[in-house]
Write a structure and sequence with these properties.
Elements (H helix, E strand, L loop, with lengths): L1 H39 L25 H34 L4 H16 L2 H12 L3 H27 L3 H8 L4 H37 L11 H10 L9 H25 L7 H14 L14 E11 L5 E12 L4 E5 L6 H8 L7 E4 L2 E4 L2 E2 L6 H7 E4 L3 H4 L6 H12 L4 H14 L5 H5 L8 H14 L4 E5 L7 H18 L2 E5 L3 H7 L2 E6 L2 E6 L1 H6 L5 H21 L1
C-alpha cells in the first residue's frame, strides 16, 4: 500500500513539474510575439507606474511593462539554461565514461584533476571562465556549461566504474571492440537513467548560475535581457519602483520549482524500490564416460595446448606497495583435456582464469614467464580475429554478462559478425541450432528479448551456446551450471563434455562441486590463497588419497553436505 502511494506521489510530482516546464516553454514560444512591443517600447509618460490591472508589476524607468519584459525574457532564459545544461551533460558524461576505459595511471591523473575542479563551487568557475571569455549571452552559456562539466565527470565516472567491471564489458574488450564504441554502446545506456535524473535536478542550478552572471553584469548584455538582467535592473530602481524585482524573481522561482519537481518525480518513478539431484549428474557422466570417451593421454606426454608459467597477479597501493593475490602459479592443459580448478571463494580461481584470457580487472598488475594457447601468445595482445577463435568464456553470473540495453541476438552475434564474417541470417540460424541443442524452450523468442526479460538459466544457456559455437581452442567455464536447474545441468555438462571430443578443444573448468569435477575432469588443481597446493586425479578424489590439509577439508565439507542432503531426503 505504501509503495503504491509513493509511486502515485512520484507520478504526481513528475507531471506537476512537466506541466510547469511545458507552460514556460509555451510562454517562451508565444510570449515574444505577443508582448514584444509593450516589453521593448519606450514610453516616458508612463515611467515607473505602480501595478494596475493593465500593468500587473508596473512599469520601469522607461515606461516598459515589467510583466511583458519577464514574459519576453523567458525565451532567452530557457535557451541559455538548456544550452548550458547540454554542454555540461554531453561533455561531462562522455569524459566520465571514457576515463573509466583508460589505463589506471592516466585515469587516476584525470580524476585527481577533476577532484580539484569539483572542490570549487560551479559559480566561481563560471565567473572565472566568463571573465576570460568576456560578457555576453553566449559566453555566459559556455562558461556555465564548462563549470558544470566536473560534476558530471565525477558522477558519470562513479557510475561507469561499476559498469566497466561487468562481464559484458569484458566480453567487448575480449573482442577488441574500440573503446569509444564500448562507451557508447555498452556503458552509456547503463548509466543513462541516474544521469538523466541528475541532469534534471542540476538544470535548476544552471538557471541560478546564469541569472547570477547576468545580475553581476557578466552575462546577457543590453539590449538583450533574461531573468538575471531584469533582476539587476529592478534592484537598481528598488527605492522608486520596488515592484520591479518581483516579476523576474517569481519567474526564476517558478521555473526552478518546475525543473526540481520534474527531477524529483523522475527519480521517484525510476527508483527500483517503487518500480535433477546431484546423483543424476554423476550417473549421466559415468554413462558418457563408459560409452564414448577415449583416452586423452598417450604413452608419451603430449605437447600442451595451454601453457601458463609462473603467473602472478596483484594490486598496487597509492604508495606503490604490492599485494599479491595469485602467486607464481603454472598450469598445462593437453589437447582434449579437461582441467579442473577447485577452491573456496576468494582463492583466486576466477582471477587466474580471467588473466589467462586477458580479462583481469582494471587496477591489477600481472606478470608471467609465459602464457600460450596453442600458437597464440597471450602475453602479447593477439589480433581480435585470432583471439575470437582462441578462447571462449562461460561466466558464472549470466545476469551481469549481458548488457541490459541490447537484445540478446545482437549481443550474441557481435563476435561472429565482427571477427568471423557471418551475415545476419547465418548468425540467426546457428544461434537457433545451438540453443535448441541445449534444450532451450522457444529459442526464437529468447533471441528477440532483452536480458531482464529472461531467467538466469536461459541466459546461461545463451552464454554456453555462444561459447561452444565459437569453436575455441580453450574453453574457460567458470561455474557454468550455477544458474541452471539440476535437470538441465546434466544436459549442459553432457554438451560441454562432448564438445571437447568433437572439437579437440581444451577445457578449464572452475567449480566448487567436487562431485562434478571428479567425474568430468582428467586432472584437478586445488587452489588455496592464490597458489596451487595440490594436483589430483579423479581416482585420488574418489579414494580420498590426498596430501594437503586444505584438500582434506574440502573433501570433508563435501561429505558433510552430501550427508546432510541425504538426511533431508529421508
Amino acid at each position: 500500500m505504501n509503495e503504491t502511494r509513493r509511486r502515485r506521489r512520484g507520478n504526481a510530482v513528475f507531471w506537476a513539474g512537466a506541466l510547469l516546464i511545458a507552460a514556460f516553454v509555451a510562454i517562451a514560444v508565444i510570449g515574444p510575439m505577443v508582448f514584444s512591443s509593450s516589453a521593448n517600447g519606450i514610453d516616458p509618460l508612463n515611467a515607473r507606474k505602480s501595478p494596475s490591472l493593465s500593468n500587473s508589476f508596473g512599469t520601469d524607468g522607461f515606461g516598459r511593462d515589467i510583466l511583458a519584459r519577464v514574459i519576453t525574457a523567458t525565451r532567452l532564459t530557457l535557451l541559455l539554461t538548456f544550452g548550458a545544461s547540454i554542454i555540461s551533460f554531453a561533455a561531462g558524461t562522455f569524459i566520465g565514461v571514457v576515463v573509466r576505459l583508460l589505463g589506471p595511471r592516466l585515469q587516476g591523473a584525470i580524476l585527481q584533476v577533476n577532484a580539484v575542479a569539483v572542490a570549487f563551487p560551479a559559480l566561481i568557475l563560471a565567473l572565472v571562465v566568463a571573465a576570460i571569455l568576456g560578457p555576453g549571452s553566449t559566453s555566459a552559456m559556455v562558461a556555465v556549461g564548462i563549470a558544470g562539466i566536473p560534476m558530471y565527470i565525477r558522477l558519470t565516472s562513479t557510475l561507469a566504474a561499476q559498469v566497466v567491471n561487468e562481464d559484458f564489458v569484458r566480453i567487448a574488450e575480449l573482442q577488441r571492440v574500440p573503446r569509444v564504441v564500448v562507451a557508447i554502446r555498452h556503458v552509456l545506456p547503463n548509466v543513462a537513467i541516474p544521469l538523466s535524473v541528475a541532469a534534471a535536478n542540476s538544470t535548476a542550478f544552471t538557471l541560478v548560475e546564469l541569472s547570477s552572471l547576468s545580475f553581476l553584469g557578466l552575462g546577457v548584455q543590453a539590449p538583450e535581457y533574461d531573468y538575471g538582467r531584469l533582476l539587476n535592473e529592478g534592484l537598481a530602481e528598488m527605492s522608486s519602483q520596488p515592484w520591479g524585482v518581483f516579476g523576474p524573481s517569481i519567474g526564476m522561482v517558478a521555473l526552478g520549482l518546475g525543473i526540481l519537481l520534474f527531477g524529483d518525480g523522475l527519480a521517484a518513478m525510476v527508483d527500483p524500490k517503487m518500480s535433477a539431484p546431484q546423483g543424476a549428474i554423476t550417473r549421466f557422466i559415468e554413462k558418457v564416460k563408459s560409452g564414448t570417451r577415449t583416452s586423452t593421454r598417450s604413452t608419451a606426454e603430449p605437447e600442451p595446448a595451454v601453457a601458463v608459467e609462473n603467473l602472478s597477479i596483484g594490486t598496487i597501493s597509492e604508495a606503490g606497495d604490492r599485494h599479491t593475490l595469485v602467486n607464481g602459479v603454472s598450469l598445462h592443459i593437453a589437447p582434449q583435456e579437461i582441467l579442473g580448478i577447485v577452491g573456496e571463494s576468494g582463492s583466486g580461481k576466477s582471477l587466474t582464469a580471467m588473466s589467462i584470457a586477458g580479462l583481469a580487472p582494471n587496477g591489477l598488475w600481472r606478470t608471467a614467464s609465459g602464457m600460450r594457447i596453442r600458437e597464440t601468445d597471450m602475453l602479447n595482445r593477439p589480433a581480435p580475429s585470432v583471439l575470437a577463435r582462441t578462447v571462449s568464456l562461460i561466466y558464472q553470473d549470466p545476469m551481469s554478462t549481458f548488457s541490459p540495453s541490447l537484445r540478446l541476438e545482437s549481443q550474441l552475434g557481435d563476435v561472429f559478425r565482427e571477427h568471423m564474417g557471418w551475415d545476419r541470417d547465418r548468425i540467426h540460424r546457428e544461434l537457433l541450432e545451438a540453443l535448441t541443442s541445449l534444450s532451450t524452450p522457444n529459442p526464437e523468442r529468447v533471441l528477440s528479448q532483452f536480458p531482464h526479460q529472461l531467467s538466469g538459466g536461459l541466459l546461461q544457456r545463451c552464454l554456453i551456446a555462444q561459447a561452444l559455437l565459437l569453436d575455441p581452442e580453450l574453453l574457460i567455464a567458470d561455474e557454468p551450471t550455477t544458474a541452471l536447474d539440476v535437470s538441465v545441468q546434466a544436459d549442459v555438462l553432457r554438451k560441454i563434455y562432448r564438445f571437447r571430443a568433437e572439437s579437440g578443444a581444451s577445457i578449464l573448468l572452475i567449480s566448487h562441486d567436487l562431485g562434478v569435477v571428479e567425474e568430468l575432469c582428467d586432472r584437478v588443481l586445488v587452489m588455496y590463497r592464490g597458489e596451487f597446493v595440490e594436483e589430483l586425479t579423479p581416482a585420488q578424489i574418489r579414494t580420498r588419497n590426498v596430501q594437503h590439509p586444505y584438500t582434506q577439508r574440502l573433501l570433508d565439507a563435501t561429505l558433510y553436505l552430501e550427508a546432510a542432503r541425504e538426511g533431508g531426503d529421508r
